[in-house]
Amino acid sequence: MAKILGIGNAVIDQVVLMEHYPQENSESRCISMTEQLGGNVLNSLTVLAQLGHQTDWMGTYTKDLMGQQLLTLMAQQGINAEPAQYIRQGKTPVSSVWIAQASASRTINHFRDLPELSFEHFARTEFESYDWLHFEARNTEALMGMLNLAKCFLTHQPISLEVEKDRPLLAELIPQASVLFFSKAYAQHLGFDQAETFLKQMHQQSPHAQMFCGWGSQGAYAISVDGKVFFEAATPHLTIVDTLGAGDTFNAGVIDALVRGHSTQEALTLATRLAEKKIQQKGLTKLFSNDHRVRLGNLNSLNAYKGNVIQPESLKHSVIVLKYKDTAKAYVNNCPHANVPLDSMYKVEIDPRALTLKCSVHDAYFNVSDGLCVAGPCHNQSLKAVPITIDDQGNIFLT
């Protein structure tokens, strides 16, 4: 599968489900309240990780409580945040999402007090190691330099750009991408009431790009490099549960289809069906599974130098998932010496040569292969193994 870098903002979505949207100056009780990963690019990466791709995220984050939760949620979804830029000051962005169950409508309020990704940080990226770069069209002044720099290093890798709303410099940015995602709102902002007319106009500005545009309940449109327009009608009479992230799921479906060698028309069809699958369920997880297994990530998301710590709802202790040769090992995240999490002080470090991991509290060393302590205060004691299974796409599940 492909190694994909997504560049965009990361957000904690606080999702409030209610029967009806409340009137102003009223009081009501919600049905549920949950917190989940948010941000357009992160949503797309969440879906792409489930499809078996290696997904890396680049954006900005800080280490307040919300920021730590954000990194944990990414690890749980198999998204690698190592390329991201750490910001010392600021707060993790939060979106309050109100969903009215009766109408399936949503209202979103954003809070952001964190600088955008800098060009200087982006410039240190090894672009040639990726098979696909996906950008969100924001922070446009810096984005212009990022796109130009990436194109200097890339030879054949596609660059996709999501254009959700009008921003400065878009006329200069759009021709830089080889795959473009447009929102219906952006097309209407430019005065177009038909997607086909809009795409034909955009094709004149960027004739080398494949373009896709969702059009709400009608379906979705696309235009190929040779100027052919395609339409995929929406399936009628679907039971709509949750539309949050549907467009991002569509974008992920297109990227996945094109990576696999499908045509523009085939990618449009596959992505439309995938987005429809998403709106019939709550959230973005378990899009491709009818069972209730607990997912611990994907083999592609594991790093040879550190472990991923996951907290399944069904377990008392968190689980540390480790790369071991061409497979994975999982252990209860608890040091037998001090009865504390292995990552209490800092991230668990792995020696890729000795294939050992080190407890951050008292420097006990454990074999990655079997969890046995080979040096330190709990010598010859072992970590408790967690049984896992790995499917054909590299997804790791609790057994």
Give the tags.
399 residues, 9 helices, alpha/beta, four-stranded mixed β-sheet
Structure explained in plain terms:
By secondary structure, the chain is α/β, with parallel strands linked by helices. 23% of the residues lie in helices and 29% in strands. The protein has nine helices and 25 strands. It has helices spanning 40-50, 65-76, 119-122, 140-153, 170-173, 184-189, 195-205, 246-259, 264-279; strands spanning 3-7, 11-18, 32-38, 54-58, 60-61, 79-80, 85-86, 91-100, 105-113, 132-136, 159-163, 179-182, 210-214, 219-223, 229-233, 295-298, 308-310, 319-324, 327-332, 349-351, 356-358, 365-367, 373-375, 388-390, 395-398. The strands form six sheets. The protein has a nine-stranded mixed β-sheet with strand order 6-4-1-10-11-12-13-14-15, with helices on both faces. The protein has a four-stranded mixed β-sheet with strand order 3-2-8-9. Strand 13 (210-214) and strand 14 (219-223) form a beta hairpin. The model has no long low-confidence stretch (mean pLDDT 91).
